[in-house]
Amino acid sequence: MSSHRLWRFPNPQWLTGTSARTAGVYAAGALFSLGFFCFIDAATYSKSSRNGSDVHINFVDWIPGICSALGMLVINSIEKARLSAESFSYSGSGVAWKARLVLFLGFAFMAGGLAGSVTVLVLKYVVPEYPFPTLYFGIANVIANGLIMLSSVVLWISQNMEDDYTYNLAL
To answer: How far is CA 130 from CA 19, 76, 125, 142, 155, in A?
Structure first.
């Protein structure tokens, strides 16, 4: 076993194949769509005639989801190789710290989206003590942002898996 490894045990062989990468991409898409479905379900229910309360989902409820989706776009636009890039491997200097800064901003967007959804849940639905059908609007917002965050992590990991079948064209 090589001495520059971080973990004692090697990765399983099934984890490094191209099928694991494809399964990760599909799982991330399923998590993302499930999250937005949960929130859109709550939004349509809040505007329907079956909603017995005067509380509806408005633009304030959508802001955390927009922040999480923007964070997902920012995070998944960064390649893992750029995070450890040296100045001679790409054109321009300081590529690594710029990529790390953009990655941090993406995670800040997603964390802000999740924190915003919890804040909306507490201030809009829990403090006024609304019953469960109305409380579901805030819970669906938190679930949607959590699933978007999880899908972003799964997609970033699965897109940046390295295996023996990919070719590195850098000299």
So the answer is: 46, 37, 6, 16, 36
Residue 120's nearest CA partner among 136, 142, 105, 143 is: 142
**For residue 46, which of 119, 122, 139 has the smallest C-alpha distance?**
139
Q: Whole-angstrom Cα distance, residue 102 to residue 96?
A: 10
- Quote the tokens at residue 110: 């997603």
Q: What distance in Å separates the CA atoms of residue 141 and residue 114, rounded to the nearest whole number?
A: 9
Helix (H) or strand (E) holding 78: none
Say what the pTM is: 0.78
User: Which residue bears the tokens 């999250």?
Assistant: 35
Residues 62-82: tens digit of each pLDDT: 999 999 999 999 988 887 777
The number of residues in the chain equals 171
Name the token pair of 9: 């045990």
CB atoms within 10 A of CB 88: 7
Q: Identify the CA nearest to 64 among candidates 129, 146, 131.
A: 146
Please answer whether residues 103 and 111 qualify as being in contact, where contact means their C-beta atoms are separated by less than 8 angstroms: no
